[in-house]
Amino acid sequence: MTAPCIMSVCECNVFYLRGWLLKALLLLAAMQLSCADCPKSCVCNIPNEVHCTFKYLTAVPDHFPPAVERINLGYNGITFLRESNFLRLEKLQLLMLHSNTIYSIEDSVFKDLRSLKVLKMSHNKIRKIDKETFKGLNGLLRLHIDHNQIEFINPEAFYGLTNLQLVQLEGNQLQQLHADTFITLRHSRVFKVSSLRTINLCDNLLSALPAEIFQGCSQLEKLFLHGNPWRCDCQMKWFSAWTHKNTGVLKCNQDRRGHLCPVCETPASQLSKPLTILNYDAYTCTKPWIKSHLKQKNINLEEGDFIPVYPKDFIAPLGTIQMNLTDQFYRQASLTCTVQTPTALENLTQNVTRNKEKNMVELSTLITTYLVCNIDHEHIQQLWKIVATYSDSPMRLKRDVMLEKNPEIVYRYSQENGGEEEITTNIKAIIKATPSWLMQQELSFQLDRTTTTFSTLHIKYQSVVSLDFEALPSKKDHYSWTMIKRDNQTKTEQTVITGGVVKLSCQIQGEPKPLMEWILPDGSKVRAPFYSEDRRIIISSDGVLTLRGADASDTGLYRCIATNYMDADVLTFRIVTLMKRGREWLLMSKLLLKCLPLINF
What we know:
Blueprint: H1 3-37, E1 49-51, E2 70-72, E3 80-81, E4 94-96, E5 104-105, E6 118-120, E7 128-129, E8 142-144, E9 152-153, E10 166-168, E11 185-187, E12 191-193, E13 198-200, E14 222-224, E15 230-231, H2 237-245, E16 250-251, E17 253-255, E18 258-260, E19 264-266, H3 292-295, E20 319-326, E21 332-339, E22 344-355, E23 358-374, H4 380-387, E24 395-404, E25 410-415, E26 428-434, E27 442-447, E28 456-470, E29 481-484, E30 493-497, E31 502-505, E32 508-511, E33 515-519, E34 525-527, E35 530-531, E36 537-539, E37 544-547, E38 556-563, E39 568-578, H5 585-595
Parallel strand pairs: 1-2, 2-4, 3-5, 4-6, 6-8, 7-9, 8-10, 10-13, 13-14, 14-16, 15-19, 30-39
Antiparallel strand pairs: 11-12, 17-18, 20-21, 20-26, 21-23, 22-23, 23-28, 24-25, 24-27, 25-26, 27-28, 29-32, 31-37, 33-34, 33-38, 35-36, 36-37, 38-39
């Protein structure tokens, strides 16, 4: 009676064994297929992973399984990356290239890695990051390029990496960064935002940062800056206000060396003081000076006047705005103005939303800029009676209706009642502007009497701008950048004895190639290459100004300007000419050099 039961159990076991064997054969076939695709000298035991560590590789393997998701090429001797190294690896999520000797990266080498989330290239010999180095990494979240030899980062290097949250740049040789370095998305020339939440710049050679470098980083949560030779002078004055507004973002590191915070290296009065405790007034610049006992010697010093020159002075206007104004007395006036590049973006917020399978950025910010308006002398009285009322308090206008849509958008605005403290003259305005986003729901205009002249009106413009645009780089976007090279060897203070020779070096770079101009102490502006009539001042096309036969009239400020009219940079040098009178001039010149701080105005 038991035999049928036993046979039944056996039959069940047979079926079970057959099923198990079939699965094992399928798995074995898959493993064999994986091994067939596995690069030589690498290990592919885990599905969708390739491990090639400690294999003495000098180049990236010729092929990888097309479905691979993780590749580890760390701890080898790879020296360069070619454009063909990672083609068609569209599912790759993790790429480890750390601890090699990579010094050369071809453009667009990662262009097919649309799914990559983490790229680790720490501990290599990379010296520069170009515009196309990270092209195509739109999904990248974490970028580790620490402990290389990076000296230069193209301002467009991270542009288009709209999901990037962390950049590790610790332990490189950076001495200078462009203000747009960490921008990942732009809209027009004005609105620049960054998706970054963590930036590590520790242990570089940075002594200063541009005032706008974190302006678009509204999501920044952690910033590491220790281990740099910070120069806590007027160039970093903005940093105090930024840290106060962004409380808790600037971080200190904790490791075996202890609690590491960024500190000042210069000037001597601020040596070793933490940046976190310096107040706004502590960041100061002083002109070169001579101690009183030196002035009693046979040396004359003429400094010349100091008139600030700013990069924005050499950038083309943003656009134009036309206004037809009418007040409560039916006085009418027309204005045509150029719109200057905005001086400030405040309270910037950004939010990424999903709309019809597209990622959209909702951006809001308070924008401040200035209008420079030509005066129509035939109607100057009417115009002045309308606008002069609004010099102490602004004219606030609210958008009513669209009057025209084609060929250009035109809106009608009406004055808002600003309360008891603000003047109201029932202004009505018809406004047309380029770019059109200048015509926001509410606008504020205020006459600036301090800069207004007989020929032009200067009017302060403010508005909260709200925009929606796609979270992808625009193909129509034309970006320009300019930089003058500055490093810790840049000497902006020069002393020369009467009759001597002095050279000032101004190395410029940018895209498109910028023009170089110099403003001399007498106020004249010249363009390189240049030769003065007496051949005493020669400016070469590569940016070197040579002054021969120096005399007292040569003392003053020499400003090097690089501009392509969409971006500009200024580097100011000071030359001090010493008059030789008696035998003590040599000793005094050496003492004077010690009294001249290196200041870049």
